[in-house]
Amino acid sequence: AKEPMRVLVTGAAGQIGYALVPMIARGVMLGADQPVILHMLDIEFAAEALKGVKMELIDAAFPLLKGVVATTDVVEACTGVNVAVMVGGFPRKEGMERKDVMTKNVSIYKAQASALEAHAAPNCKVLVVANPANTNALILKEFAPSIPEKNISCLTRLDHNRALGQISERLGVQVSDVKNAIIWGNHSSSQYPDVNHATVKTSSGEKPVRELVQDDEWLNGEFIATVQQRGAAIIKARKLSSALSAASSACDHIRDWVLGTAEVCFSPCVLFGIWLIYMQPFNTEFVDHREHLFPWVCTLMVHTVCLLVLSTPSQ
Ligand code: NAX
Questions:
Q1: What residues are labeled active site?
Q2: With pLDDT > 70 as the criterion, what percentage of the chain qualifies?
Q3: Taking Cα atoms as reference points, which of 88, 70, 82, 86 lies closest to residue 30?
Q4: Which phi and psi (to 5°) does residue 166 adopt?
Q5: Where are its TM segments located (predicted)?
Q6: Nearest C-alpha to atom 8 of ligand 1 is from which residue?
Q7: Quick one: pLDDT at residue 288?
């Protein structure tokens, strides 16, 4: 039997956390044969709620779940973790831009980075979900210099999945048959969802999305705007930001990173908002091969940071 992997979820008492921890405990993130120990961190204010989540995890009797650490202590939360999913932070509410929450997250990410640096397992892989995700990942990298840059990423897989979802709805095809969308840019409304290389599996082979949709005006206009604005649309409808889709996308991101993917393109957001495109199909050597690709691709796109800085109004 495999040794359990320790997975940290910060902000675990929040709405994404509540959707995410059962997915991890069911093997959605690391595989159906991978036992896990969940480390859940939240702040004092949410300590009771966090206890409740732990009780529910126990009650759900997940066979893969070998232990639960529920704590408000950052060091205890980070000790020995192999995967860290950073969800905790100040969420964007209706009418707020991501930059509005930026300042609130700086001190949080400094402290958590230092704890990960000192106490996480070697080769810990970090996924930052909390917005502004790129900036939080950058802060984390700055304060955890011994964690390799290639191990720090942030979540844009949700945007990627949203693009696949829109194409599947439009064409009336299974979402699993739509492949190789790319999201360029930042996880924000300025992103560019690109389906120029995307294909759909049909009974007569793979067909380009553009050929099947036959409506460039829609693909170049409404489709892009819908994906860009989807987060805001969810907030408008639910009065809360995306949670189950964010949790599921976080699982997809880590699963493809750790276990590999059959897709030619997938969209982990590497530091500074780079979109990494893997141009080869998955094979067993691919994971190792990818390790060599990362530093190369991580040649940093400082301009994205500059844009972020420039778009932040000075106080
Ligand atoms: P919630 O407010 O429901 O949960 C956040 C949790 O974080 C709360 O339980 C809170 O107590 C906890 N928290 C706050 N400060 C903390 C700290 N210092 N240490 C540990 N925990 C702390 O927000 P939720 O809807 O779960 O969203 C979480 C984050 O995900 C937000 O920043 C949100 O903007 C971001 N999102 C990112 C997405 C992406 O694609 N990258 C999409 C979904 C989501 O909007």
A1: 187
A2: 81
A3: 82
A4: -65, -40
A5: 257-278, 293-310
A6: 14
A7: 32
**Does the C-beta of 89 come closer than 6 Å to ligand 1?**
yes
Strand 182-184 relative to strand 5-10, pairing: unpaired
Q: Whose CA is nearest to atom 32 of ligand 1?
A: 130
Q: What is the spatial distance between Cα 18 and Cα 7, in angstroms, rounded to a whole number? A: 14
Q: Two tokens at 292?
A: 């060599």
Which phi and psi angles does 107 have, rounded to 5°? -70, -35
> Ligand 1 within 6 A of 241 CB?
yes
Residue with tokens 């997915």: 23
Number of Cβ within 10 Å of residue 72's Cβ equals 16
For tokens 């530093």, name the residue: 295
pLDDT surpassing 50 at residue 303: no
ipTM: 0.99
Instruction: Output the six-digit token pair for 127.
Output: 């996924």
User: What is the pTM (predicted TM-score) of this model?
Assistant: 0.85
Q: What is the mean pLDDT of residues 15-43?
A: 98
